[in-house]
Amino acid sequence: MPLSMNKDVFITCAVTGSGSTQDRSPHVPRSPQQIAQSAIAAAKAGAAVVHCHVRDPETGVPSRDVKLYREVTDRIRDSEVDVVLNLTAGMGGDIVFGDVDSPFPTRDGTDMVGATERVAHIAECLPEICTLDCGTMNFAEADYVMTNTPGMLTAMGAMMTKLGVKPEIEAFDTGHLWYAKQLVADGVLDAPALVQLCMGVPWGAPDDLNTFMAMVNNVPQDWTFSAFGLGRNQMAYVAASVLAGGNVRVGLEDNLWLEKGVLAENWQLVERAGTIIENMGARVIGPHGGTRKAWTEIAGSGVRRAFLAVSTALLLGACAAPLSEQKTDLRNPDAILAGTTRFDKVRFAGDWQTLACIGACADASTYVVATDDAYVRVAGDGQTGFDVTAPGVLRERGGGQTLVVMWVDDGFRTAAVGDAAGTWAAVIDRARPGSADRIRAATEILDFNGWDVSQMRKAE
Predict the structure, then answer these.
(1) pLDDT level of residue 326 (50, 70, 90 thresholds)
(2) CB distance 69 to 82 below 8 Å
(3) What predicted TM-score, i.e. pTM, was given to this entire model?
(4) How many Å from the N-terminal Cα to the C-terminal Cα in the chain?
(5) Residue 182: is its pLDDT beyond 70?
(6) Cα-Cα-Cα-Cα dihedral of 362, 367, 371, 373, to 10°?
(7) Rounded to whole angstroms, what are the CA distances from 372 to 315, 343, 432?
(8) How far apart are CA 300 and CA 32, in angstroms?
(9) How confident is residue 275, by pLDDT bands cut at 50, 70 and 90?
């Protein structure tokens, strides 16, 4: 797979994991209610996929209890977020040997069950995605082996495919990718496949960039991949994966810290990842109405295509006119136009100055949160009420105008905005003259969303 930056990125949040982290941070969720609430908060922060394990609600010890998975699934499904659910199927393949002179009998922590039992909660809950750890490896502790034989993987993969649940291949080393390709070649898994590159997990692939690119270069061209790094390298791997053409995973399963001395919550890690992605000039494909339905209908033709279709359909559904009626000489209508998942109407409220403009723009504007929850834009001599129908998408009340906030910096000082009909777009700032770096970033976002920035003029 050639090195080509991904411009449309989805974030997976790994909510709780199965490591012994429950006593190292109060933010690691234990009960189904806590796990679901943390997943929902992560989705609201921009995660399109939530990856969930379950734990004993009292002790926090990892569990395979189908009832716990059922409760987590129901709580997420009953919420207002339309997030793609990814349940682990990695449990039940654990061997902890005795000492080096007497490896048998095995010790506490050993949990080896058959393929049907390992997939029982998947059959019960039918998430959109479930994981398939595609190999056996020594795993961190001295005598613990993560065990996934070829026969076990073939059986589990066939069950997942028959259930209509998309396996996410978790590859901890290059040989795991090799076998994943064999599973596709044998017809066990459907192509194109979905892969998670798991970097820096002892004793799999180390998280240096040479090894990472060796992994990336072994992912078939039509497959979709994400990647993560453990601990302090989690955010570095957000940038690395996007640059290499992939998507990203963050969350408390892989890292407990927001920064030195500050324990993170899942939504904070997702929010920070989104900031990195958008500051690189890419956009985050977040959860929106119709995400799960579109996934079910078209994920088989490619995971990335599924998310892009959802995002495009969302925006076009909010616009006043069909795309064929929105052609102007200011914007390429074939380019995807989408609002930023960072948008927050309270933080966006206040006075803005227009720094640069394409088409006919007001010199200044003010956004006000009204008492009836409308969002009012005051520009020139008029004011217009809007409803926020999706992150960064503002639809006029009683009218046909739709505004799109395509990007805003993390301090809500500079933004790229435009009319969905393609009649104008602008770089706006809290004050003139604005930051050159932020103006450049906003201009790049306009260009990415199809606007003809050669027609941009400086506002007087």
Answers:
(1) very low
(2) no
(3) 0.70
(4) 47
(5) yes
(6) 100
(7) 24, 19, 32
(8) 30
(9) very high
